[in-house]
Specification:
By secondary structure, the protein is mainly β. It has strands spanning about 5-15, 25-30, 35, 45-50, 55-70, 80, 90, 95, 110, 115, 130-135. It has no helices and 11 strands. The radius of gyration is 15 Å and the shape is globular.
Length: about 140
Amino acid sequence: MANEQNLICLSKVAGADLSAKQYYGVALQSDGEVELANAAGEPVLGVLQNNPTSGQTATVAVSGVTKMIAGGVIAVGAYVAVDANGKAKTAVAGRTDTTDTAAAADALLGSYVLGVHVGDAASADGDIISVLITHTGSVPTTVS
């Protein structure tokens, strides 16, 4: 069963109709409004806690344990990012872009890690899971 604990939330204006997007990831736009996160692995502000229409106040959890809609199977303890629909997905570990020869300029590629799945069981598409918001950013792969 998903739960919430110690949420810290921001109030922002919804830049689109988010009335059906409670517990989805939202991104901060250049105008200061929030909209549904719509690119897999993109940086997100947090998780929407209410269901505002465009122009209404959106309550966005930015810290604590929040409920979030899963977009597929996510193991307990896995890093969480967003998919192209704003749902939770397993984050893709970062790797260095080696398409050029200038190693210092190589970008780190990977999902923006919003948090960690701290629920009791692995998820399925559409499940509500518990996510500890950490805003870890891109997590690089490790060498064994």
